[in-house]
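Can you give me the bound-state structure? Components:
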Amino acid sequence: MIQYYFLLGVRSLRRNPILTALMVLILAVGVAASVSTLTILHVMSGDPIPHKSERLIVPLVDNGPIKGYTPGEREGDEMSYRDAVNLLASGQGDRRTAIRGVDGTIEPARKDLPVFTAEGLSPTRDFFAMFEVPFVHGGPWSEADDKSGADVMVLGGKLAERLFGNANPVGQRVRFRGFDYAVVGVYGNWKPIPRYHRIIGGPGAFGDEDEFYIPFHNAIRHEMGQNGNMNCSSDRGPGYQALLDSECIWIQFWFELHSASDRPQLQAWLDAYAAEQRKLGRLQRNAPNKLFNVMEWLEEQKVVGKDSRLSAMLAFGFLLLCLVNTIGLLLAKFSVRAPEVGVRRALGASRKEIFTQFLIESAVVGLAGGILGLVLALGALALIGSISEQIAVTTHMDWMMLLVTFVMSVSAAMLAGLLPTWRACQVTPALQLKSQ
Amino acid sequence: MEIKPIFSALMRSKTGPILVAVQVALSLAILANAMHIVSVRQAVAARPTGIANEEEVFNLRVKPLKPGGHEEQLANQKAQAAALRAVPGIVSVADTNQITLSNSGNYNSVAASREQERSNASPSMYVTPDSLVKTWGLKIIDGRDFTPQDAPEIDQNTSKAFPTVALITKATGQKVWPDAPSFVGKKLYYGTGADAREVTVVGVIDTLQTPSAAMGQDGEMSTMVPARITGSSRSLYTLRAEPGQRDRAMKDAEEAIRKLHNGQVVVRTTTQSEERVKRYRADNALCWMLITVSVLLMMVTASGIVGMASLWVTQRRKQIGVRRALGARKLDILRYFVTENLMITTTGIVGGLLGALALNQLLVSKLELARLPAEYMVVGALASWALGIAAVYGPAWRAASISPALATRSA
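Here's the bound-state model for the whole set.
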């Protein structure tokens, strides 16, 4: 019977073409507005590494000056070189890495290419395993290269293609900032959304992929300046060593735990470390030492922008308006069907039957609205994505959002259909038959 | 007037009128807030940077293959500036450490004295050996601009030297010395305590936004010190071209620098207008999204009113015919439907105003937006009335045009 009602519903779409078209259009516009803003929120607040996000941990210790400190405030969300080096040597967790930004000029060996600048990161070797960076050629640099800060480089796919075309560049040289780097690996399509491994500084949470990686100690050895954020509470004095000795914070640190349940142990270790540093005259604020897993870190860094939330809230308000509008239109559509209901009831159909039939008819309208809404939403997303590359990465609809579109549209239509349907059920058969 | 009979008629079938009133209320609540957000964002984007005729200004970044030593960098900077000044159509060139609206810059805490524990403000610090005041056409309201003698040559990798004079914006002065009549001659400290750097304020700039151009007073908290800095991996120049010459001058300037270094250098240029577009891109996008939603909102509401009114006109065809036959003029029928609609929209507007306040409260508490001023509610209410009347006019006119003879015949 439900199948038959569904067919009746499809057929009745044609009965009042203008009214029905208006209804479908309004529902579609409301659903499209909600789905497109929701898609952006969904992508922004997604878990970039679901199977591991509980085990990847950002530690923070507050090394700001005690003078003028009010408890509760925090110096910053990165780490000083001193703390980063100590944590790297700690042996805590399965893996650990310190990340900072580097940039500089690259002189291509091919003479037809001009000199250009490239931006990359300078992490330790564990980085690749921790964030599961996929390699297409070669692999990470060795432990020895990591320790000695050798001139080795992992290229991003785009940069590798720009420099070497489609050939395997492993073993080739890249001249970066005037030094020859040996290419040890090329990583493939790796573009986590959000770019959780380094949100602060650089291209931000929705920026482009890193162009290359060089060892952390290599960038330090060549005294490369920071490309990204740096917070200094006091004047650090001239020279590179002064920067390394200073309390300036500029390095992003990550631990990988063996299991999420190891977190209290890491917390205890970090507290002990901070206490030890306090004895040496550092970390005088004695602020709580914090740990964040991936999702907590994304939340802390406010990766989902307020404007996105605002858009989504207003879009849902709009959907609500469309819903009320649809109630009115369905009421109008069903009200002229009273004679039909009267005949059916007189022939023995129960109220429940009528209810099912009209609700299914509403659902058919919702389904049509969903299809049109999907098209409109895809159009809206393409339009929003054309604003900037940063936004474009968040405007991709996945299967989940596709499903949400239809569920939203059909349930909105059925919700809107409840009152008109109930009204239709109230038709008294005798009265209707008499007036015919 | 016929308000009482219209009201009794409305009370007999409430569902339709309630649906229309709810639509008016919802659209007004959203509309008032959306328009407010749009106007706040546009006011933010319309703030002056302090730079005169921004469309004549462009910026040029030079990155050498290798940084080079202090002397080499000094020589390079001077040669680059000279090459840029020689480009035809260039009015003025200044070396700078940061660009207004570019979002990347230097911020330093400042204090009125060495002794105080907490700094007064964290203004942005522009560093230039030339005259940014001249290149950007900044307005000095008190004191003087830097002279070439003010700017020391500092290698930031080895030296702790610091300039001795500074320019500040009016906003910075007012924050650091709230009650002072004049800021010229005052001592300003970068940092606090023994290592704080002392500078003497020699001039006050009316307005100069920071690179991030944050909202409110923070966006105008700038200071400027004269120095020729080496030890940075890139040089940055800001240039002013003659009116209408910018795009050509920018190309020529880029070419001049490449030629100077035989192509062994990376040059990037941006116009100040591009920096502005980039800075406010997100705000503009949000404004367009809100305007789109608002327009759709009005259209949906209008279609709701039209649909309902048409339905009522059809349902009451016979009654309208009887009324017309009994002597009612076309105008009376028109007035009936317009009055009925006004009553419904007014109810909706009352609900909408409350809804607007509630939505604003939600936005204030969840997203820290500004409070909704009363003007937006007044304008929103007027717009809703106008929309209501415009939407009902068509169906009401159709009702008025019903011929009494035809409508009553079938009865």
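A couple of observations. The CA atoms of residues 32 and 377 of chain A lie 4 Å apart. Chain A has two domains: 2-45+305-435, 75-261.
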